[in-house]
TrEMBL record:
Organism expressing this protein natively: Oceanobacter antarcticus
Protein name per UniProt: DUF3135 domain-containing protein
InterPro entries (UniProt xref): DUF3135
Biological classification of the source: Bacteria, Pseudomonadati, Pseudomonadota, Gammaproteobacteria, Oceanospirillales
Amino acid sequence: MPSFDELRKLADSNPEQLEALRQQMIEETINNAPPAFQRRLRGLQFQVDMERRRARNPMDSCIRVSKMMHDHLYQMRQTINGAEVDTRSALAGFTSALPSNQAIMEATSVKTTINPNSSTVVPFPQLANN
C-alpha cells in the first residue's frame, strides 16, 4: 500500500487513478477473505459506495460512512445486550418452573434420610423394561 503522502499526491494529481487503486485494493481484500464472508463483504461495500455517491462532497461522504459504522456497531450492541437479557429472562422463567427439591423427594417412592456422618447409597427406582 502506498504511503499517506503518496496517496495524497495521487488525490491531487490524478483522482481517477486513486479511485482505481481504491477499487483494486477493495477487490483484493474481499477476494482474500474466506468465501463464506465474500458475499456479505460485497453487500457492505455496495452500501458504502451508494453512500459515497449520495454525498455532496468528500467530507459528507466521510460523515455518511462513519455514521454507517456507528449505526452497525449500535445494532450489534443492542443485539448482544438483547440476547443477554432474553437469556436471563428465559433462564429465570425456566428455573422458577422447576419443582423444588422437597417436591421431588415427596414425589418419589424411595425415602431416604441423610446422615452427615455416614455414607449412604441411594437406590434409584426400578424402570419398567420395554
